[in-house]
Amino acid sequence: MEITDINQLDPDKDYTYADYLLWKFKERIELFKGKVFKMSPAPARIHQDILRNINRKFDQIFYKMPCKVYFAPFDVRLPNKNGDVYSVVQPDLSVICDLTKLDDRGCLGAPDLIVEILSPGNTKKEQDLKYRIYEEAGVFEYWIVHPTDKNIQVFVLQNGIYIGLKPFTEGEIITSKTFPELSFSTDEIFANV
After folding, report:
1. DSSP assignment letter at 27
2. Mapped to the 3 state alphabet, what secondary structure does 137-183 carry?
3. Helix extents (H) in the chain
């Protein structure tokens, strides 16, 4: 049976990436450990402005390195310990330095750094569900950008557990722990938003 409407899916069932590839509906979705989550509608302009500002800073650093930077929509497939893919996410921005993880469908495995920008309606997903998935998958560094509060939370993986740093607020210099050359003022991210 062809799946053309998200309402045809059973909310109690666990789905895999193989299922995800067969669906033919317009809504953008993500899989969190087999469960289907609708993505928020098109993000607000402030979200796009912040993403553009972050991408400019990342691009200045990563174009010189053997790493690739991708922004949504871009599928990141995170296999579980058995190698099965029950989590497919579309981070706002991903940095992948192990280029063998890249294929025509996106990234298979944990990116080195992920940035998520909060939007109304996705706060719980980013701060709870995705946090746990990224930690378990082994994403080295995870940034959560809070547009209204104009701060950035940074989590760094140490011994398989995320350690949260003090939030970076307006006027502070944020420096990546994974990529120390990635360092800039938060004012450049929240400028004109």
Report:
1. S
2. HCCCEEEEEECCCCEEEEEEEECCEEEECCCEECCCEEECCCCCCCE
3. 17-22, 45-62, 123-124, 130-137, 186-190
| Tokens 């067969």 found at | 22
Residue tagged 């495995």 (tokens): 109
Angle at Cα 32 formed by Cα 177 and Cα 119, nearest 5°?
65
Bond preceding residue 73 cis, omega within 30 of 0: yes
- Rounded Cα gap, residues 74 and 182, in angstroms: 22
Question: What are the tens digits of pLDDT across the range 1-56?
Answer: 678 878 888 888 888 888 888 888 777 777 788 888 776 666 678 889 999 999 99
Instruction: Note the pTM of the prediction, 2 decimals.
Output: 0.88
pLDDT in tens, 85-126: 999 999 999 999 999 999 999 999 999 999 999 987 666 666
Q: Is 113 exposed, middle or buried (0-12, 13-18, 19+ CB in 10 A)?
A: buried
The one-letter amino acid code at 53 reads: N
